[in-house]
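User: Reviewer 2 asked us to show a designed sequence for the structure in our supplementary figure. I'm pasting the structure tokens here. Could you produce the per-position amino acids so we can include them in the response letter?
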């Protein structure tokens, strides 16, 4: 595991450390610590203190955030700038970094690898921690941007508890505003996962065809739903008799309605009875069915008359 090329040469030169050839290239490197000098550079920029209390991990991520590092808090919150806002590098930090780079034989410089969803999660697992759901959600957001359906499907089932039929709904929700506070304010709490779940449910409901929805836990059926022997549901219902509508006041069971109708003229009474016909939902439609020449105004007169009589009967009761 030796190499004539020193991955730290440019970095050391940029940091003001003399670039020298290793004195002992044959020294075994297998037991030396591996250091990603580019990551060290990213961490030390603006580093003037340790992470705030409550931050249990600082990890590089691929979420297109400033600095490329996030701090993961004990409560599952993730935040940018885990060491505080960017500041000029201190002389103390620079001195320590230069000292590290001036001893290239004491470590193995490893190439920088771009973070991925898998590497971010593996970092938590290597430390013996469960991957916070909000971290998995942000990884899934990047996967949705790349069109990585496999990762999104895994997140959908393992974190949201939904099946793969939710792929489009969850992908759409992942690209929504649920994580906006991370990019605008530098912080995202676990509560954002609730917003994501609600948005995914809303989108899924919008994408569900009417005939696949349920009302009162009962599924709707289209009238052209095929039945046995080449018939449809429409054919079956067309042969069913409709509800029997009252033809006179005496056919009504509600005594209050009987009292109202008995005080109406036959013409007004015909409008009220017409309201019970299938497809009639307004007073104007009922008036038209009863033969009124101006159904709009006539139906409104009947409505006001019925309302007044109902109020009088109600006050007596």
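Assistant: Here is a per-position design you can include in the supplement:
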């Amino acid at each position: 595991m030796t190499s004539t090329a020193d991955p730290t040469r440019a970095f050391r030169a940029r940091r003001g450390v003399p670039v020298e050839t290793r004195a002992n290239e044959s020294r075994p490197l297998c037991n030396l610590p591996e250091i990603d000098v580019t990551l060290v550079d990213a961490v030390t920029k603006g580093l003037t203190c340790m992470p705030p209390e409550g931050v249990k991990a600082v990890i590089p991520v691929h979420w297109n955030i400033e600095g490329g590092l996030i701090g993961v808090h004990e409560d599952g919150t993730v935040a940018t700038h885990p060491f505080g806002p960017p500041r000029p590098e201190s002389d103390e930090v620079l001195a320590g970094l230069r000292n590290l780079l001036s001893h290239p034989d004491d470590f193995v410089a490893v190439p920088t690898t771009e973070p991925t969803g898998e590497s971010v999660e593996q970092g938590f697992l290597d430390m013996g921690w469960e991957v916070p759901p909000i971290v998995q959600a942000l990884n899934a957001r990047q996967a949705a941007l790349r069109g990585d359906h496999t990762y999104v499907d895994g997140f959908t089932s393992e974190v949201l508890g939904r099946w793969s039929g939710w792929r489009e709904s969850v992908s759409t929700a992942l690209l929504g505003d649920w994580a906006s506070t991370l990019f605008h304010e530098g912080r995202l709490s676990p509560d954002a996962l609730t917003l994501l779940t609600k948005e995914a449910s809303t989108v899924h409901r919008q994408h569900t065809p009417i005939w696949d929805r349920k009302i009162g836990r009962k599924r709707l059926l289209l009238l052209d739903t095929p039945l046995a022997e080449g018939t449809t549901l429409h054919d079956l219902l067309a042969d069913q008799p409709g509800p029997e509508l009252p033809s006179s006041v005496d056919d009504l069971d509600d005594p209050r309605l009987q009292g109202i109708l008995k005080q109406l003229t036959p013409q007004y009474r015909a409008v009220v009875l017409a309201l019970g016909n299938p497809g009639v939902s307004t007073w104007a439609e009922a008036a038209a069915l009863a033969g009124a020449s101006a159904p709009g105004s006539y139906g409104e007169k009947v409505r006001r008359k019925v309302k007044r009589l109902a109020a009088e009967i109600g006050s007596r009761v």
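For the response letter, you might also mention the following. The longest strand covers residues 55-60. DSSP finds 14 helices and eight strands in the chain.
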